[in-house]
Amino acid sequence: MPKSRASSSxxxxxxxxxxxxxxxxxxIKENRFTILVFYRGGWCSVxxxxxxxxxxxxxxxxxxxxxxxxxSAESYDTSVETFQDLxxxxxxxxxxxxxxxxxxxxxxxxxxxxxWDKFLTIAKKAGANxxxxxxxxxxxxxxxxxxxxxxxxxxxxxxSWKKFPLLKNYYGATDRMAVEDVLNIVEFMLSPTYTxxxxxxxxxxxxxxxxxxxxxxxxKEKFIAHLKKEYNYELLEFVDDVRQFEKAVxxxxxxxxxxxxxxxxxxxxxxxxxxxxxxxxxxxxxxxGKDQExxxxxxxxxxxxxxxxxILYTDCFNRFKKTKDFYEMVKDIPQFFTTP
Length: 340
Description:
The protein has helices spanning 3-6, 12-15, 21-30, 45-54, 58-63, 76-86, 99-103, 110-125, 179-189, 192-195, 206-215, 217-229, 233-247, 251-266, 278-288, 302-320, 324-327; strands spanning 16-18, 33-38, 66-72, 92-94, 147-152, 157-162. By secondary structure, it is of the alpha/beta class.
């Protein structure tokens, strides 16, 4: 919150506030960095656990010159209840119109809403108490999905992570990147190592560097460690499994691998379900739904493979390039970087 709001006390009225564009922009300008944590609502037990884990980090964030704000589309009064019930020490923002969630594309869309309906149906069949979950349908402008975004003092977006709701993660409830891990990345980005000797990848070498990392075991292990922190490691495992399928020679081996890939990554609620475009998923569902024995063509998973690699390259890899582990790779692959 701006100093004008915070200077008098740290009472609830000072730390819980409704969204106001001017006030929000003032927060950004007053802090070295600002972390926004989007959560579903105070009715969500995983959200409450996440908020409680931020409490002990708040003093460190303030000492670093930063701010952290948790945002939901719940009402101001409900946000006050959450703040008081959890005894929080950092600001909560009530954004009932989902302005920020829409701006950073973490609001619930029709595609995600259909997944929510499926999840509620499954939860009911399992005998779960879904009454708290149904509160998500009371939001005027929809619910935001779990996400973390970070701005620098000029308002530039320097880090962004979001979790796409799927059945396997209980519609975004689980598999969230820890705020502490994000803070570690931000702390490194603010360090002299990053700010004074920022790596410059040679022109035209970025995609080649990405491909080199995902096929070189020693380098890939560091990338996987990062992917596990942001719960996206199944994307790279999928890429590896499809490559193995494409190399298979016998009909028996190809069929076995194809079915394994479909059961593991493609079908709804599979243990490593991927966020694939509907038409990509439907194509595979139709193929595997055929009654007749058909030899899986080697390019069966080509479109889904390209989709997964695009997410890895444009999204996950860009975040990885901001980590200390990436910087420590340079000594092993100097051919991809310009010399200072």
